[in-house]
Amino acid sequence: MKISKRPSAPLVRLGAAFWCLSILINFDYPAHHLFYWQVLLPSVDVWLLFIALATTACWGQRCLVWGTLPVWALFIFLRLFRLGDTAVPMYLDRPFNLYIDSGYIYGLYDLLKTSSRQGDFLLLTIMGAAVALLFMVLTWPAFRVAAKALASDWLRRWFLTGSALLLGAALIWGWSGGHEALRSPVLGRLAQELFFIHSIAEQQRSFASRLEQGLRQRSATPASLKGLKGADVLLFLVESYGRIAFSRPEYRQAMDGTTARLAEILARHGFLAVSSYLVASTYGGSSWLTHGTLESGVRVEDDLQYTALLRSSVPPMAFFFREAGYRTVSVMPGTRFAFPEGAYFGYEQVYYAWHFNYLGPAFGWAAMPDQFVLDWVRRHEFMEHERPLFVRYVLISSHASFSIQPPFIDDWDSIGDGRLYRDLDLVYYPITWPDLSNAGDAYLRSLDYEFEIIGDYLAKYVSDDSLVIIMGDHQPNRQLTGEGEPWSVPVHIISRNPRLLEPFRKRGYTPGLIPAQAVPHAGMETFLTGFLEDFSGSP
Question: What average pLDDT does range 328-337 have in this prediction?
Answer without folding.
Answer: 93
